Amino acid sequence: MRQLNNIASIRQAIREKRMAGLRCVLVPTMGNLHAGHISLVRKARELGDCVVVSIFVNPLQFGANEDLDSYPRTLEDDIKKLQHEGVELVFAPTANEMYPNGQHQMTRVEVPYFNAILCGDSRPGHFDGVTTVVCKLLNLVQPDAAVFGEKDFQQLFIIRRMVADLSLPVDIVGAPIVREPDGLAMSSRNQYLSSSERKLAAALSRVLHETRDKCQSAGRNPDTWQAAKQQASTVLAEIGFRLDYLELRDTGNLMEPAADSHELVLLAAAYLGNTRLIDNLCFSIEP
Ligand code: PAF
Q: 117 CA to middle of ligand 1, Å?
């Protein structure tokens, strides 16, 4: 495995892989790798012969009051895990390498409307930071495919939209959420939870599953969906969550479900103490 820290060297390494006829698959990460990330690496392995993992805590996607400085940085451990997975290339640039002209005047890529709803409403600028760095990484690596976790459902939706709108020649592949045994979706931010918060945290996925069951058994009945959503919000608040949002959307356009919507997703963001957790659950409603 080769670890490269600058743009010229990753470009050269990729060129060599391509000349050898290898299909390259990128897994963009911010490091602090857990089993969720490893599942993305394994998905990438299924899709190609050369797996490239980027590790970059992207300052552009953190708001002024967010956890950029305290975000866990564990490069040495991450490298060991990737070596164990047989990853070919790791790209771990500095912020200066990625944004040599500074962050403030950096050209941005934005996906309007979708960058401002749901998580974008409470994290203004966050998705512009994500799309800007992902666009840049796709340009640098020029992979055949790139893999993203479905836990960040809105992020994946927005990246797909960016790739379609800009006709970027890459397949965007989603990989299923990996959960702890009690159902909590894996996330680097779970380690911010105190032990009592950690015990409560699993309720987020439990409530999503219960709400999905109610919606599915109600069939195409928007009044029942609204009531189920309302009840879920109340239950989560009673448990101790400070809810940012809990919404039911059409997976195809992230809008409120229409009369003929078939594939739906429950999306939630909620705080336990200072830790913001997100989770989602996709399901079908029979026509
Ligand atoms: O999902 C993440 O870890 C980040 O948002 C990403 C896609 C690596 C961009 O920084």
A: 18
